Amino acid sequence: MQMSRAAVLTHFDSPLEVKEYPLPQSVEPDAALIRVTLAGVCGTDVHLWHGQLPIPLPVILGHETVGVVERLGTNLIADWNGQRLAEGDRVTWSSSITCGRCYYCRIKRQPTRCLERKAYGISYDCRQPPHLLGGYAEYIYLRPGTSVFRLPDELPTEAVVGAGCALVTSLHGLERIGIEWGDTVIIQGSGPVGLACLALAKTSGASRVIMIGGPEHRLEIAGQFGADYCIDVTKTAAEERTKQALDLTDGFGADLVLECVGIPQAVSEGLELCRDGGRYLILGHYGDAGTIAFNPHVVTRKQLVVAGSWGFEPRHTSVALQFLARSRSQFPFENLVSAPFPLECAFEALQATAGWATAKSVIAP
Ligand SMILES: [Zn+2]
Ligand SMILES: [Zn+2]
């Protein structure tokens, strides 16, 4: 029996364990077996590792992955965009599958909140067959209903994983909060989500984008991506950076502030960075990192619109891949990617992400 190795989260806050699982004997008509080329380590994986979301254990982490089709179900003849699909094709896929039938899918059209939503690398107990439902593995089994995307030849694997779920998450978030031509934008956080928001803001008509983040190697990429001004959080206290950012907006604050940090304190800081009548998007809190004291008077007095956004839909992945192929020279997301970690070092990759040591850690099984 052919086996696949996988890095498994068995207990929260403990090292990942490399285990072996059998490859499925057969592939269902609408499913596929993929040999993983590169798996991204997302900030969400760090939240999952800390147990900040209710997930089953043990689980194979990894929800932003590129691989090569090893075996294709007989019905899976085309990708999500209708392009022919064949064994040997390089593909990526939307990390979640929704039911299309529940209250949120059908009536309220909020499929990212589908009551039956399941995500690779998050929702599957890997003791249950087909076991291989996370990216930190040599193989992954794509279940029927997965939105698969064949990658254009000119788009490097590193660019797709470098943009990862950050770009699609940002696309969805900006769609909800809206960005207007000429907007001054402040982005809190220069990790993958902050950098993706920067790329999208720069191509959506923002007049000026101020990045508040760190450390320096991430702000360098922000500079490459066209940030007009960077404030290093590792060198400034909260009051000092708020003052700097407000000074840069003539004391008024930004039209639009995007929270891409995931630390609760960033939210009270971010509300102060909005101009009166401005908009605030809380995008970085995929995990539950706890509560903070917060003054609702600020939202009322400043007449703020505050929004949240969760995950993304296959249509966002489709647009994101087109954007990446089209804007490669302007936004080289492959520059975020560090030297790949082998599967045995998946835990080191996770720790590198947790400590902001890399812009984007990746695993090459
Ligand atoms: Zn993610
Ligand atoms: Zn549903």
Summarize the structure.
By secondary structure, the chain is an alpha/beta fold. The protein has ten helices and 17 strands.
Structure description:
With 365 residues, the chain is an alpha/beta fold. Strand 14, helix 7 and strand 15 form a beta-alpha-beta unit. The protein is globular and about 65 Å long. The longest helix has 21 residues. The protein folds into two domains: 188 residues, Alpha-Beta Complex (Quinone Oxidoreductase, Chain A, domain 1); 144 residues, 3-Layer(aba) Sandwich (Rossmann fold). Helix content is 27%, strand content 23%. The site of one zinc ion (ZN) has 9 residues, from helix 2.
Note the topology.
Blueprint: E1 3-9, E2 17-22, E3 32-40, H1 43-49, E4 59-60, E5 65-72, E6 90-93, E7 96-97, H2 103-107, E8 118-119, E9 139-142, E10 148-150, H3 157-177, E11 184-188, H4 192-202, E12 208-213, H5 216-224, E13 229-232, H6 238-248, E14 254-259, H7 265-272, E15 274-282, H8 297-301, E16 305-308, H9 314-326, H10 346-354, E17 362-363
Parallel strand pairs: 11-12, 11-14, 12-13, 14-15, 15-16
Antiparallel strand pairs: 1-2, 1-4, 3-5, 3-9, 3-17, 5-6, 6-10, 7-8
Helix pairs in contact: 3-4, 3-9
Bound molecules: zinc ion (ZN) (2 copies).
One zinc ion is lined by residues 42, 44, 63-64, 165.
